[in-house]
Specification:
Elements: H1 2-8, E1 56-58, H2 60-69, E2 78-87, E3 94-103, E4 107-118, H3 122-130, E5 140-149, H4 155-161, E6 167-175, H5 182-195, E7 198-200, H6 206-220, E8 225-229, E9 236-237, E10 241-242, H7 247-298
Antiparallel strand pairs: 1-5, 2-3, 2-6, 3-4, 4-5, 5-7, 6-8, 9-10
Helix pairs in contact: 2-5, 5-6, 5-7, 6-7
Length: about 325
């Protein structure tokens, strides 16, 4: 599959991590002004006492659009782990917890949550999910699909602001290479969101959303990923309800995502070439400036003095 090949060959497109093998503490002052994608690694990095600021929140459409219009450092961000999680308390909300990293001059790490909720008040959501046990009618509302990003780079603050106190990790993938890029996961989640924009407590709720994204990750899982599987309770609510997705749904999603990911990858490569061209031109100008300064010093001229015709003494006409 072409999409699988894209993911498998992503390693060659990324920077080497040998200089910074371990992420730096999110409170390290060196991170404050370091260059990075500030949507994924926000202003809370390199500062203390930022935990009161809530996570940055995007819809999958918004974040994909942000990557398309603001391409800076997008290709540097890769997924290091993904966990399929289930809250301990009712309504047993399911979500995907993602750890991402990026490394250039410094090494960043951050945490994201992908999930689906309804725009209905939470107490009504609970009531609707309870109806699953003895359903009378389908409860429908506009879906709210979210990608929440820790503001300060800590998992603790992300979970606290998301009102998640206790949860179980049902399945987990650890990626021991830089082959799975964040923008690929974002496009994948957007395609899933497009399939059903309505939250239905009986069919297209958080279980459906997380399970479908997770199924795509499983299908694309690079060989070097290490999986921990404990899926007995995945997609379940109570003794009777079990949300499942079939392979046809996953295959259809991957086929649609393939073209979108390839298009975004091309846009990012073009942007990177332009960035490298500008960087090279800037380097040439800086080298020329150094040579001119050396020429000034060689002839005893003050630093910054103009050279050539501009340096000649003023011309006076003799009358």
């Amino acid at each position: 599959m072409a999409l699988a090949r894209l993911i498998a060959t992503s390693t060659r497109m990324l920077v080497s991590l040998s200089a910074n093998p371990d992420p730096q503490s999110p409170e390290d002052p060196a991170l404050r002004h370091a260059q990075r994608n500030r949507h994924i690694f926000p202003a809370g990095f390199g500062r203390s006492r930022e935990a009161k600021i809530p996570p940055i929140e995007f819809t999958p459409w918004q974040l994909e659009d942000t990557f398309t219009t603001n391409k800076e450092y997008v290709k540097d961000i890769y997924v290091t782990s993904a966990a399929y999680c289930k809250e301990s308390k009712s309504p047993k909300h399911e979500f995907i917890l993602v750890e991402v990293e990026a490394a250039r001059d410094v090494h960043f790490r951050n945490y994201l949550i992908l999930d689906r909720i309804s725009n209905l008040p939470s107490d009504r959501i609970t009531q609707h999910l309870i109806q699953i046990i003895a359903p009378v009618s389908s409860s429908r509302a506009p879906a709210r699909d979210r990608i929440r990003i820790s503001y300060d780079g800590t998992l603790r603050s992300l979970l606290a602001h998301s009102s998640i106190s206790k949860y179980d990790v049902l399945e987990r993938y650890d990626f021991h290479s830089v082959s799975f890029l964040l923008y690929q996961l974002v496009v994948l989640s957007r395609v899933v969101s497009d399939r059903h924009i309505v939250y239905d407590a009986l069919s297209t709720q958080c279980y459906w959303y997380a399970s479908l994204i997770w199924g795509c990750i499983q299908r694309l899982r690079p060989e070097h990923a290490v999986a921990t599987i404990n899926s007995k309770y995945r997609g379940r609510f109570g003794p009777m309800f079990h949300q499942q997705v079939d392979s046809n749904q996953i295959g259809s999603i991957l086929k649609e995502a393939e073209e979108a990911i390839d298009h975004l990858r091309t846009c990012l490569e073009v942007s990177n070439k332009r960035y490298n061209h500008v960087t090279k031109a800037t380097g040439v100008r800086e080298e020329l400036s150094r040579e001119l300064e050396a020429s000034r010093m060689a002839v005893g001229m003050p630093s910054g003095a103009p050279l050539g015709i501009e340096a000649a003494p003023p011309y006076h006409m003799i009358s």
